[in-house]
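Is this the right way to post structure tokens for a design question? Let me know if I should format differently. Anyway, here goes:
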């Protein structure tokens, strides 16, 4: 087991000096004095999870992590008393195809959280469904806080460009991005530097 110099310094700082008490309370107090304790609300956690999921969506091919983080945010936001209804599940009631797609989303959510749920089974994760999960989270977050998340808007722009769906009301920017035909990693930076965001965005 190896520790770097910083970790060793922290561990040594927890240990009592000669003549000092070695009680559990002493060690606990020393740990509290060294560790940085961050206070965070459920809504702040959901925002962090959602932003990180969007960044991973553009920067990696790790659809499992995107899915897991997005669902974690979705569960918090969906249960918030000020939240609008989940558009994703409203759509699921409109056709058998939509219902099947949402069922696959929820199956993956549970599959990635619990080992005891059919541990030898493998599932097919439809990566494109993550796009709609992220957008749904962004809609609910805005209904609660009155603020949009820039990275979620970027996902909406990606879907508009790649799927030929006008879900983002900025046709000039969308047409510009469509002509550029950028890969995912470059798309996010280009969109954030091209689009104009008002004060109601984080």
């Amino acid at each position: 087991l190896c520790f770097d110099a910083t970790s060793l310094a922290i561990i040594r700082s927890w240990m009592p000096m000669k003549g000092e008490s070695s009680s559990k309370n002493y060690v606990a107090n020393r740990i509290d004095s060294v560790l940085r304790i961050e206070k965070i609300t459920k809504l702040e956690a959901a925002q962090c999870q959602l932003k990180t999921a969007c960044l991973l969506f553009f920067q990696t091919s790790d659809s499992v992590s995107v899915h897991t983080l997005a669902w974690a945010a979705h569960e918090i936001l969906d249960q918030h008393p000020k939240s609008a209804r989940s558009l994703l599940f409203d759509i699921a009631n409109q056709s058998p195809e939509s219902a099947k797609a949402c069922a696959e989303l929820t199956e993956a959510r549970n599959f990635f959280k619990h080992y005891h749920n059919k541990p030898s089974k493998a599932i097919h994760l439809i990566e494109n469904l993550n796009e709609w999960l992220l957008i749904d989270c962004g809609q609910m977050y805005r209904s609660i806080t009155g603020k949009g998340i820039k990275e979620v808007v970027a996902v909406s722009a990606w879907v508009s460009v790649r799927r030929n769906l006008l879900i983002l009301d900025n046709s000039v920017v969308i047409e510009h991005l469509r002509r550029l035909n950028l890969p995912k990693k470059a798309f996010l930076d280009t969109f954030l530097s091209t689009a104009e965001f008002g004060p109601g965005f984080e």
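Format looks fine. Someone answered above. Worth noting: Residues 54 and 151 are 6 Å apart (CA to CA). Residues 42-59 form the longest helix (18 residues).
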